[in-house]
Amino acid sequence: MSTRVLPPPGHSPGARAWRRLKRNRLARVGLVLVTLMALGCFCLPALLHLDPTTTHPAFRHQPPSAAHWFGTDGLGRDYAARVLAGGQTSLLVGLVATLTCVVIGVLYGAAAGYYGGRVDEVMMRFVDFMYGIPYMFLVILIMLMFSESARGDPVPVFVALGLVEWLTMARVVRGQVLTLREREFVLAARLLGAGDLAIIARHIVPNVLGIVTVYATLTVPTVIILESFLSFLGLGLKLSWGQLVSEAVGVVNPVAVYWWLLAFPSAFLAVTLLCLNYVGDGLRDAVDPKGH
Amino acid sequence: MYRTLLGILSVFGAALLLVALTFSKTLEAPADLRLANGTEPKSLDPELTTGEPEHVLASALFEGLTRIDGKTGKPVAGVAERWDISADGTVYTFHLRDDARWSDGRPVTADDFVYAWKRLLEPAVGAEYAYMLFPVALAEAYNTFAGHAETLEKQLMPAVTALATQSPLDARSWQDFLRRNKANDPLRPVDDDVLGELLARRTGTLTASDLATFRARLEHARAWLRDESVRARAHFGVDHGVIAKDARTLVVELRAPTPYFLQVLAHNSSMPVPRWALAAHGDRWFLPGNIVSNGPFRLANWIVNDHIRLEKSPTYWGKSEVRLERVDMLSNENQMTILNLYLTGALDCTNRYFPQELAPELKKRRDFEQAPGLVVYFYRLNTTRKPLDDKRVRKAINLAIDRELITKSVLGLGQAPAYTFVPPGLPAYTAPATAIRHDPDEARRLLAEAGYPGGKGFPRVGILYNTMEDHKRLAEVVSDQLRRTLGIEVTPYNQEWQSYLEAERALNYDIARAGWNADYADPNTFLEMFVTNGANNQTGFSSELYDRLIRLASDVSLLARDPDPTLAKLREPEPIRALLAATQSGSPTDREHARERLRLLLLREAESILVEDEFPIVPIYFYVNGTLTQPRVHGYSMRVLLDDGSFGPNLQDTHPLRDVWVDPAHKGEP
Question: pTM for the complete prediction?
Fold first, then answer.
């Protein structure tokens, strides 16, 4: 009869990471702000009946006021509604494109790392090859495969960004899996007759989830920035923070300065990116304290 | 160690020297005048260019028989010093100046024009502006008939043979068939009533014998086109159309009197080109070092995506009248950059390339000038695609748009809302009655009648525009208005210039933004484009009556032959019948006068088909051109002197550089 030694309560790796994260002040502030931002973008427009599309050309370029918190744009649309709606798509792009890249990257990296040898060699050389192609070129190519009138729709942007961002994820996961597959619990599972798929899904993937979470958190801001960049090239979404900033850059001129057009979306974009980065950094420190 | 460092430093120094040398080339004497000129010009070949920036440059570098006078905006003597016009208005005899010179010193001769015009009309050259010379006898035959004959032989005739097995055929599929096989364009010049009747058949069925007749007539038409083309190639430039009587006398025969012909001659498409330079340098003849030109300026330098430097030509006949020594034409598409350059004094004139979005602010400035222009901003509707193939839907869209709101609040430069197609301001032309207005209730009713009550079941359509902030803003407002008024989902989307043009040409769009700038001050330049399958029609719109009216307007004497069938279909036949009688009696001047008025009335009838019946387009507004110009620049005005001594708008926004000058008192100041 053996006595099961329980780990002291609150000391599982997850709990320890959570505690370390909570102790990181920047990460904590970041997490709160990002949550508020997301809640605001997704809930406020519905609560306040904000309408980002209806034009009132007679009321264009109104500075911020009680009626229009962030003023109005060149077509008289409520700018607060547009900034919040832009936030919805920007955050959604960040999340969905990151999810795409997590799914592809984790499966690809896990397969390469688990099988090793020639399979690994071929798969990772393919990743290197993709790295070699300038990613902008790749994104534009993917965008062009969708019909012209789908320009500005979210789906092509999600797909295009997800498809170029998975490469690093695949490398990170493969590196982890290379060490994991030599571990005893994998051997034990194999001895018990588990198939490759079951081993990858049940034993390997759960063990890389920590690092994947960290990396995914850091991918979200990258993707948002990428989408803004696409917007500058005219390939982005119809309405996103990047798009709003790109439109507003035109107002930097000596004749008439509509500062609110530039200030609000840039501030929202900058704050969100900064916070997401702090959260990502905090998570990394929390999950892998040796890293720092 | 020191040696390595020395090596690195010397390599670095050498690279720096190289960079310095490269840039030192660009150090030029400061220009008298610096103008914004839009995007980087594609070519300086006056016959092959189509864009506005190229047009401005070609007009400075080359000169045609006539040129546009900066003060009055009217054609005046250019290379031709004077001309005689025959009593019936169809033969022009031009007398060329004996001091007209190319920039390499050679005289400009009548042969240079014959050579240039034959080149413009040569099908293999593919000049888009070839049609500008179509008023000249045989010119159209020279340019298009061989191609038409080939289209008939290679495409239409085999297709008709294949179709014969499917007869009888209902008229709708017959029209589809004709459109698919591009039948109308090659057959338009063919004068054959039987063929015309078959082409125009839109109701009933076509029997096997109809098709057999059609095929036989096609055979005739093809033979005729081929013969005419051969005839044109043998005679045009030799003893017909355009004839060089001697080095300084050029005779031009028109197929019908063309009141705007002298304006056509001032357009860059009919300017002479140096054949020896073309022979020596081929496609690269217009690059610096190769180019030979005959205009008031010559090309001094061309820095791609930066500027083109022009300098006064020492061989130009009127060099004593040219007061600018050096002009820089800036190639920059970014309107905000152009405005900033202007405001910091690095640019003397923004031309039309200032940000439209800031128009209300800029309008308040004293150095801002504006005038209505002969340009219409409109949307093309693809009449071959559902749901826009239903003219009730097209009308509903026309009625749902609030143009007043757009011109007042979105544009704000004083643009006029467009309810017809031809811009106002053309002398003697009055716009037709129009069914277009802002009427949301009627628009909803029409949409319901077409089967989409409240927009239900209406497929999502797109508004295509070429990438540009102003077009985007307008497309967003229009789609919002359509959404709110009709309850239909309209998505604006953009494409780069080339793919946008291609999509329009291939009818690969639902609604597409367009603008049309008058090539010459006449309604014909606007209305001619909507003839069936015309190169600039691009809507799939096709009306037999419309085509006939445009044809008759180009030669009103055709109407006298058999007026009744045409008159019966017109909205206001009586004034036309009266004028037709007037063209056949009275003094030659009275007849000429009646002919001109008749021509304009026929064009007006054609326009009314567009804006009262068929609605293949959505006219939005008529342009106002504007520019910011430093006060030291003179002669760059938005106003022109009229015959009666008063001032009128510079409708075509033309500013010939030869008539521009800079006040030396202001020189050096920003």
Answer: 0.79
Type of residue found at B427: P
Strand B511-517 versus strand B368-381 pairing type: antiparallel
The pair phi, psi for residue B74, each rounded to 5°, is: -110, 155
Q: How far apart are CA B272 and CA B292, in angstroms?
A: 11
**Parallel, antiparallel, or unpaired for β B461-466 and B490-495?**
parallel
Intervals of CATH 3.40.190.10 along chain B: 2-136+239-357
Any chain A CB within 8 A of the CB of B470? no
Going by their DSSP bridges, the two strands B33-36 and B633-634 should be labelled as: unpaired
| Tokens of residue B317, six digits | 């006949």
Nearest to B274 by CA among B255, B295, B302: B295
Q: What are phi and psi of B67, to 5 degrees?
A: -140, 165
Per the listing, tokens 């695609």 go with B385
Shortest distance, CA B192 to any CA of chain A (angstroms): 43
**Distance of residue A151 Cα from the nearest chain B Cα, in angstroms:** 6
A235: nearest CA in chain B? B494
Angstrom CA distances, B568 to B555, B564, B577, B611, B613, stand at 19, 6, 11, 20, 16
Q: How far apart are CA B536 and CA B129, in angstroms?
A: 12
Could A60 and B409 be called an inter-chain contact, meaning their C-beta atoms sit closer than 8 Å?
yes
CB count in 10 Å sphere of residue A13 = 10
Closest-CA distance of chain A to residue B344, Å: 10
- Looking at the complex, does the CB of residue B80 fall below 8 Å from at least one CB of chain A? no
- Tell me if A148 and B336 make a contact (CB, 8 A cut-off): no
Which of A59, A230, A253 should be substituted to probe chain B, the one whose Cβ sees the most B Cβ atoms within 10 Å?
Answer: A253
Mean pLDDT in order along chain B per 10 residues (670 residues): 70 72 65 90 88 90 94 92 91 95 94 95 89 92 92 88 79 80 81 82 82 90 94 92 93 91 92 94 91 94 92 93 93 87 92 86 90 93 90 95 91 90 90 92 94 91 86 92 93 82 87 90 91 82 88 86 85 89 85 89 94 94 92 89 85 89 66
Share in percent of chain B as helix, strand, coil (round to 5): 45, 20, 40
- What is the C-alpha to C-alpha distance for residues A144 and A129, in angstroms, rounded to an integer? 21
C-beta atoms of A253 and B494 within 8 A: no
Two structure tokens written together for B75? 């054609």
Question: Which residue in this structure is represented by tokens 């297709």?
Answer: B159
Cα B243 to chain center, whole Å?
Answer: 27
Backbone angles phi, psi at B459, to 5 degrees: -65, 155
Helices (H), chain A: 13-23, 25-48, 79-115, 117-132, 135-145, 154-180, 184-191, 196-198, 205-232, 241-248, 259-287
Token duo for residue B259: 């009141």
Computed from CA positions of residues B471, B476, B482, B488, in that sequence, does the dihedral angle turn out positive or negative? positive
Residue-wise pLDDT for B6-28, tens only, equals 777 777 777 777 776 665 555 67
A64 within 8 A of B490, measured Cβ to Cβ: no
CA B353 to chain A, closest CA, distance in angstroms equals 14
Residue range(s) in chain B whose domain bears CATH number 3.10.105.10: 370-623
CB-count exposure of residue B645 (10 Å: 0-12, 13-18, 19+): exposed
As a CATH number, domain B2-136+239-357 is 3.40.190.10
pLDDT at B145: 92
Fold topology of A31-41+70-291: MetI-like fold (1.10.3720)
Higher pLDDT, B70 or A49: B70
Question: Comparing C-alpha atoms, which of A188, A185, A166 is closest to residue A112?
Answer: A166
B328-345 pLDDT, tens digit each: 999 988 888 899 999 998
The pair of structure tokens assigned to B163 is 């179709």
CA dihedral B382, B387, B392, B397 (to 10 degrees): -70
Dihedrals phi, psi of B333, to nearest 5 degrees = -90, -20
Give the CATH class of B370-623.
alpha beta
